Amino acid sequence: MENNITVIIPIHHLVKETKLSLEAAINSIKQQTVVPKDILLVVKQDRQIEEFCKTLVDESQILINKTSKTDYASQINLGVNNIKTEYFTVLELDDELNKTWISRATQYSKIYDKKVDIFLPIVYEYDKGTFVHMMNEAAWADSFSEIQGFYDLQMCLEVDVASLNGMVMKTTKFIELGGLKSNIKYYTNKEFLLRALNNSLKVFVIPKVGYLHSLNRKNSISAEMLTKDSKELTYWNNITKKEYYFKNDREIIDYNPSK
Amino acid sequence: MEENKIEKIIELGNSLINKIDNKESKILFYVFDTKNKPLTSIKYTYDCVKYLVQLGYNAFIFHEKEYTGVKDWLGVEYSNLPHKTFEQKSLKVDKSDVIVIPEMAAPVMKMLGFDSKIPCKKVVLCQSYEFITELLIPGDSWVMYGFDEVIVTSKKLGDYVKTLFPNITYSIIPVGIDNELFNNDYVEPKTPNIAVLCRNVVDYRNFTKLFYLKQPLFRWITFKHLDRVKPTDYAKIIKEASLVVWIDEIAGFGTTPIEAMKCNTKVLAKVPNLIPEWALDENKELIKDVQWFYNNLDLPDLIGEYIMKFTQDTFIEDDILSEKYKNSYTLEAQKEAVKNVFAKIFSNQKESINKDIEKLKSKDGE
Question: Using only C-alpha atoms, what is the Rg of chain A?
């Protein structure tokens, strides 16, 4: 089955554990029943990281981010702007793709070409190797949203059940929509999803497990969020609900506990 | 007997034979009023009448005066078939005509059986063994009411009927499945929805609740009950579903699993009390294309296992069941069976009338 998908892996830092994880992540791409057309590692300018990545993929599959903005959102935006395929997906360095995900995404993207802009998988979330819960499966529950299998804005504003991990999206649509916003410190993906839905993009959950997400890895955003007090997280969550109306990555005042 | 009278009777007999030969004899299929609720057994009856009309027979849907009809769920093709009511004063039957009464209408059989003004051929239509005794008076039998022939949907059911009424003869008209409704042209991939056909609605409610309790990981799974659903909606649900659960212990045939397999939907089925032919392979063992179970309490785990495999993509779900079942139980086969069964019924009727004529002739000769 032919596909037109690039898997982007943003890499900000590498320690011993994450090197192993990255190897597993790349193996999960290579072992796909349908191998994606391309892989792109977006790497912070760091000689050690670059050298290690060269042991895993072809040099042409490594994009060095020479800017000072090397956060998750900026790395992905840079990656998407440098790929040549019609679709892309993002794989975090400590996660894995289920071996049929690219095949399923290809199959569904051909069938739903005009009807769907973003394909999401069912995500399995793990904490230290233990299965915790699923994400995105609720889109298939009866009467959850207007159309079974699709997310709608109202539902995503009310309930936190969506995960963009493993998202397969048209490259041009992502750029048109403005990409991810690096000024949104937490819940970046959520803001993007709300913005997509607000712009009438169709977001569909393929009823297949496509992404194995590792929660709370050291130095990860989810681990960092665990250290934050709930007021700060609520602040950032509320920010997403204000910012999704805007395409631009507007300046945001950082959380100030005294206010 | 007076010569003239005998001659008249012989003449009448010959006119009856002419009626049969010209397909003018009436065939009346009795149906209940489902009050707009879709019911497979009623569609089957309508299909029989539809084919008989297409074959040039004088067939009718036969019902009580108060009758809602089937227009809302079967459409005009069926509602426009010829209908007759019990109360129609002009309705008269003779020995060349046939009345077909469903198994559950034992009181109607009794009424017709004891009415000497109804000299026609009386046939039972039996689609479920459970309803044979539902309204039958203890100690009575169909044969006692003058019904010595039965149409069944499977050989298994016919054999069972023979154990109850040894003097009855049976013919089989299998259920026909519309390949236009149940085909593999559905391009959209299967949803995780589960279609369920449960004869007993209480069973359906119980097992779905049990499933959500025992499989909390899959509380998002949507079940869709197929009972009393319009044929087009029914087909859509089966095509979209990734799994069909079939619980109908008393079925005489059971089309749902075959319909599902025709459109590549997996089937989890409870073994029925009378296992129909389609469910057995050449070694008389349950076919492997269906996953069978015996106890409703096992269902939550079986469905859970299935959903796990479906979502994780750990089995090949796209195998081509549809190709294997494409030619099974088609409408054409049903139509052919209808044609053969009624050709045989009328041939027997003619033989019986001829015998009567011959008897009279020999008496006349004496």
Answer: 17
Cross-strand bridge partners of residue B187: none
Contacts of B192 in chain A (CB under 8 A): 140, 207
Q: Which of B187, B192, B312 sits opposite A111 (nearest CB)?
A: B187
For residues B73, B75, B80, B85, the Cα torsion angle rounded to the nearest 10 degrees is: 0
The amino acid present at A168, given as its one-letter code, is V
CA angle A184, A190, A191 (to 5 degrees): 50
Contact, A83 vs A128, CB < 8 A? no
Is residue B307 classed as helix, strand or coil in its secondary structure? helix
Q: In this predicted model, what pLDDT tens digit does every residue of B209-266 receive, in sequence order?
A: 999 999 999 999 999 999 889 999 999 999 999 999 999 988 888 899 999 999 989 9
**Token reading at B208:** 């779905």
Could you report the predicted ipTM of this complex, rounded to two decimals? 0.90
B3 in contact with chain A, both atoms CB, cutoff 8 A:
no
Alpha-carbon gap: B183 to the closest alpha carbon of chain A (Å): 18
Burial code of B298-327, b = ≥16 C-beta within 10 A, e = fewer? ebbebbbebbeebbebeeeeeeebbeebee
Mutate to test the interface with A, among B220, B223, B242, B310 (most CBs of A within 10 A): B220
**Chain A neighbors of B188, CB-CB under 8 A:** 111
pLDDT digits (tens, 9 = 90+) for B312-363: 988 665 557 888 888 889 999 999 999 999 999 999 999 999 988 888 777 7
Beta-carbon pairs below 8 A across chains A and B:
43
R_g (Cα) of chain B, nearest Å: 24
CA separation for the pair B111, B148 (Å, rounded)? 15
Using a CB-CB distance cutoff of 8 angstroms, which residues of chain B are in contact with residue A110? Answer: none
| Partner residue opposite A208 with nearest CB, options B188, B193, B313 | B313
CB B151 within 8 A of CB B121: no
Q: Which of residues 170-209 of B touch A (CB under 8 A)?
A: 187-189, 191-193
CB contact under 8 A, B220 and A138: yes
**Closest-CA residue to A39 (of A7, A3, A77):** A7
Q: Could you please report the per-residue DSSP string of A172-187?
A: HHHHHHT---TT--S-
